[in-house]
Amino acid sequence: MAILSARLDQIKPSPTIAMTTRAAELKAEGRDIIALSAGEPDFDTPETIRDAAKAAIDAGHTRYTPVDGTASLKRAIAAKFARENGLDYAPSQITVGTGGKQILYNALMATLDQGDEVIIPAPYWVSYPDMVLLAGGTPVVVPCPADQGFRLTPEALEAAITPRTKWLILNSPSNPSGAGYDRRAMKALTDVLLRHPQVWVLADDIYEHLVFDDFEFCTPAQIEPRLKDRVLTMNGVSKSYAMTGWRIGYGGGPQELIKAMAMLQSQSTSNPCSISQYAAEAALTGPQDYIRDSRAVFQRRRDLVVAGLNACPGLDCPVPQGAFYVYPSIAGLIGTVSRSGRRIDSDENFADALLDEEGVAVVFGAAFGLSPHFRVSYATSDERLTEAVARIRRFCEGCNPV
Predict the structure, then answer these.
(1) What is the per-residue burial (b if ≥16 Cβ within 10 Å, else e) of 201-232?
(2) Which long-range contacts does 1-7 make (Cβ < 8 Å, 24+ apart)?
(3) Three-state DSSP class for 284?
(4) What is the pLDDT of residue 18?
(5) 208 contact partners, CB below 8 Å, separation of at least 6
């Protein structure tokens, strides 16, 4: 008798984690590897946040908390939504989980029945389709190519909606493309959603503060208040405050949904780490200088990487509005052969050959639902990025037509 559930056949391991793991294994073998596959800031958590966590330990805040967050953290989150997004949520409309991923997972598990559809613009974060499948839903992937700025158009959204549609997942700025929706683009989508009252919106705002140039962040419930009662606005402290390992995500939404998510969490992980909650509260209520300073560093790195990749034969790298990724096309290299004789007939082959021949780990575009591309995370030092771009250029220059 098989011990494993049949539902596991529907999902696959995270390709980003798989590539990061492979890069680490090669590095442990003595290879000089530059890993551009992981999506986390390379900075330390700000000192004021670390100090708050230490103080929480010394004060004995090491016990269970309410299932989906302490009252004080929920108040801090509600204040953040009001201050930065113009959204009014009561603490009873706030939920806190073990990272943003748990907020998304809880929402889908609490709402999806077999066959319910979830619209996912591609390129997408790798976990979205698998979470939908685990919850019994059907992912409806809508390609959003580079000539659309990697953004979902209102026409494409309208065409994808059916009577079975329950959610639209909208990530802005996006992982992996860095594309963001300005107010005009967001309003065009919310206008469509107003015509379809059965469709809820899962707004993944985790990269809210990592925006560049003159781009201004906005979120669906902010742009169209009439949608607020069917929007879950998800965020967290991982990317904005370099707190990936602290595992705190949060969401604001209708009380009925929040209550259902809390019930689900009560029978899975229960409360997030108590110390991390106090650290997250300090992040949201304390000095915000880190966000401004890190944003400037990431924008400099973005410009370095975009310029370097666009100088590589066969690559075309659009300029992203936010996050810390670029998503260049390798269309110009499809059908070539690398110096070692590897045929480049897909973005997965490109990424494998690049790692084997030049020691640069990136994530292939098929993992994100849109090929032929690859994702680079520029959350590493300027020195390493400069070297990585030089290796990628050398690899591309060595690819020749068959």
Answers:
(1) bbbbbbbbbbbbeeeebbbbbbbbeebbebbb
(2) 7/133, 7/134
(3) helix
(4) 82
(5) 84, 173, 217, 219, 235, 240
One of 3.40.640.10, 3.90.550.10, 1.10.10.10, 3.30.930.10 is the CATH number of 64-285, namely 3.40.640.10
Q: Give the burial class of 149: count Cβ atoms within 10 A of its Cβ; 0-12 exposed, 13-18 middle, 19 or more buried.
A: middle
Q: Which one-letter DSSP state was computed for residue 211?
A: B
Residue 247, C-beta contacts closer than 8 angstroms, at least 6 positions apart: 98, 99, 238, 272, 273, 276
| Overall fold of domain 6-44+290-396 | Aspartate Aminotransferase, domain 1 (3.90.1150)
Q: Model's pTM, two decimal places?
A: 0.96
Boundaries of every domain in the chain: 6-44+290-396, 64-285
Q: What is the DSSP letter of 10?
A: G
The whole-number mean pLDDT for each consecutive block of 10 residues of the chain, a chain of 402 residues, reads 81 80 88 91 96 98 98 98 98 98 98 97 97 97 98 98 98 98 98 98 98 97 98 98 98 98 97 98 97 97 98 98 98 97 96 96 97 97 97 98 86
Beta bridge partners of 211: 322
